[in-house]
Write a structure and sequence with these properties.
Number of strands: 30
Radius of gyration: 30 Å
Number of helices: 15
Largest sheet: 9 strands, mixed
Shape: globular
RNA sequence: CGGGGUGUAGCGCAGCUUGGUAGCGCACUCGCUUUGGGAGCGAGGGGCCGCAGGUUCAAAUCCUGUCACCCCGACCA
């Protein structure tokens, strides 16, 4: 393959486009890989297409290796299919909707569970047909509230989505594992630094959902990783270690304190530290927010229920409640902050002075964060204006209905597996593997007739790779000051041949080498433009082809220069050895 | 949806305060020179100054409205 820059549809930009903030966006635009058409909507130019095709090739190879078969669904989908799954309504504003000339509703597919399920239902009906795995590489549409970061988060993007269909839970487990392994190979081959993180709580079944994240500062997803073991989870699914369980019986009996005007944790702590503890027959000590128990009033909604119910969550006073994490843990139950009206319904809950002691009697559900361990003693509200209670002990003075990870994770929290400090980082979601179960099969009646003549509901897995996003994420993880630095496998070419100088011999020699390299199967980008050396060098660095071969002033001494884009390393090689040297680089890399 | 900002050539920007021929750099075309780190000189082409209305003899500039876009946040199978 030979790309000539004199004819390549490419215009590089000297300046950064002003709307580009993140490095991948800036460099993909400057390097002429993509152009913006509308917010979150991009055109892919020849160099971009080359990179995209390379990513797709790897994805296809690895899908084939686990026996997944490629299909292709329309992006334009009639409303009725999404009506059947309930997602015409559930997807809300994120769905692109349109009508045909007759006024019939359509949508542009944000994902394709419905079509895969129905296709299989239409073709297969016997247990002998399973297991099955299908995939497609398709353009997806989501009307994001705020597209950003160039192609990292677009409204139109390419995704590989696949689905597995199995007769049994064990079959699903195997399909899930096969996909997970394939994804590891895909992201390794593409040259990613990536982490596999838990995406939903252990309560929902451990490994039911995992995300493949590429750690980078411009990532939109926050995740947590252990500094010592390989535990990693996104912040919604993370579990952290609490302090050791304590013996609550050694705590003094609880005592009600006079604490007027202390509706917040800060005011309460000040008050505690100025109390005359001798009055209560107790030794004076220093208190901090961590000694108090904060009880946050929320409300929850069971799917299908007609009412919201109150929920109180107890967390250490020095912690905030992370609503996103909480929502992730409670899913599919919805959760929201309770408002004044909700609180008014239970007058026993005194704002600012709520304690867990009464909640069981009030029939209000009470959960604690695991940091509030059995036997721990707290200062908390006395359920009376201006009063708090000290030495309120879990297991002695109150019994929560259960635990839920609710606190906002901090850098340095302890790993639930090994106890080492956790670290918060940002990453880009490259892929997601998810054991869907029977949700769609139930909805659409996807069953197979078993050997006993009875129908078995199929269980499904759903697996996605963001293809366009992977290109941007790779740029994000590999760029440097001068430009892009593609790993060889995805680079638009193996070698960028740059003739310099006014001497026609350099151009002729570069042409000769390019032709010879191409015949060896090397992908060559040849800068045959009439431009100054500076322009060519800058563009070569911006475009990010991994090997650069400079044919110029060294010719008089019988050498050409071989440069490694990534390391910056340069070495002269004799003209006669140049082609084989490049070929060795390409094969070795 | 909340906060901040910007709309002038393909890209990056000035001009607006104080109304009067629409400019600069890059890119593009032609000529000559130059050729190892975004070359020089000269000559060119390219504009609904976001849109609509208003004020005025005259509007990129002032006024009103409107639309779009960008950034931060909320949201995000």
């Amino acid at each position: 393959m030979l790309l000539r820059m004199s004819t390549l549809f490419l215009r590089t930009l000297r300046d950064d486009p002003t709307d580009a903030e993140v490095p991948s966006h800036r460099l993909l635009v400057r390097g002429g890989y993509v152009r913006r058409v509308a917010p979150g909507i991009y055109s892919w130019l020849p160099l971009g297409m080359a990179v995209l095709a390379n990513v797709e090739r790897v994805v296809r190879e690895e899908m084939a290796s686990i026996g997944s078969q490629e299909v292709h669904f329309p992006a334009l989908i009639p409303r009725e299919l999404f009506e059947a799954s309930g997602r015409w309504a559930d997807y809300g504003d994120s769905l692109f909707r349109l009508q045909d000339r007759k006024g019939v509703d359509y949508l542009l597919g944000p994902t394709h569970e419905e079509l895969f399920t129905l296709l299989v239902k239409g073709e297969y009906s016997s247990y002998k047909d399973y297991p099955l795995s299908l995939y497609q590489i398709q353009t997806k549409y989501r009307d994001e509230a705020r597209p950003r970061a160039g192609v990292l988060r677009g409204r139109e993007f390419i995704m590989k989505d696949s689905y597995s269909f199995d007769l049994s839970d064990e079959g699903l487990r195997q399909s899930y594992q096969a996909h997970r392994d394939a994804y590891e190979r895909i992201f390794s081959r593409l040259g990613f630094d990536y982490r596999i993180v838990f995406a939903v709580s252990g309560a929902m079944g451990g490994s039911a959902s995992e995300e493949f994240l590429a750690p980078t500062p411009s990532g939109e997803d926050t995740f947590v990783q252990c500094t010592s073991c390989d535990y990693a989870a996104n912040t919604e699914a993370v579990e952290i270690a609490g302090p050791p369980v304590q013996d609550g019986s050694i705590q003094p009996a609880s005592v009600v304190l006079d604490t007027p005007d202390t509706p917040t944790i800060a005011t309460l702590v000040d008050r505690l530290n100025s109390l005359d503890w001798a009055e209560y027959g107790l030794p004076t000590r220093q208190f901090s927010a961590a000694d108090t128990l904060k009880n946050v009033v929320l409300k929850t909604h069971q799917p299908g229920a007609d009412r919201w119910e109150l929920l109180v969550v107890g967390v250490p006073g020095d912690r905030e409640v992370d609503m996103k994490r909480l929502a992730g843990q409670l899913e599919p139950v919805e959760v929201e902050q309770a408002d004044a009206e909700d609180l008014a319904a239970v007058p026993e809950l005194v704002k600012g002075y709520i304690g867990p002691q009464l909640l069981a009697d009030l029939k209000v559900r009470f959960l604690v964060d695991p940091l509030v361990v059995e036997g721990s003693a707290w200062v908390t509200g006395a359920n009376e204006e201006g009063k708090h209670t000290a030495f309120v002990v879990r297991g002695r003075d109150f019994d929560p209905a259960g635990e839920v990870g609710a606190v906002e994770i901090r850098d340095g929290d302890r790993c639930a597996r090994c106890g080492s400090p956790l670290q918060i980082a940002r990453g880009i979601e490259l892929g997601h593997v998810f054991a869907l179960g029977r949700k769609y099969a139930d909805t659409f009646g996807l069953t197979a007739l078993g050997p006993d003549g009875k129908p078995v509901t199929i269980t499904m897995g759903s697996y996605g790779v963001g293809v366009t996003r992977a290109v941007a994420a790779l740029a994000e993880q590999t760029y440097d000051e001068a430009g892009l630095c593609w790993p060889r496998l995805v680079a638009p070419a193996d070698v960028h041949v740059v003739p310099t100088g006014k001497d026609a011999a350099a151009v002729a020699e570069a042409e000769r080498m390019a032709t010879e390299l191409v015949s060896l199967g090397v992908r060559v980008l040849l800068d045959d433009r009439k431009a100054s050396p500076g322009v060519k060098f800058k563009d070569a660095e911006l475009l990010g082809v991994p090997t650069i071969l400079v044919v110029g002033r060294g010719l008089d001494d019988g050498v050409v220069e071989l440069r490694d884009r990534k390391s910056g390393e340069r070495r002269d090689v004799p003209v006669g050895d140049a082609v084989s040297a490049v070929h060795a680089e390409v094969s070795g890399g």
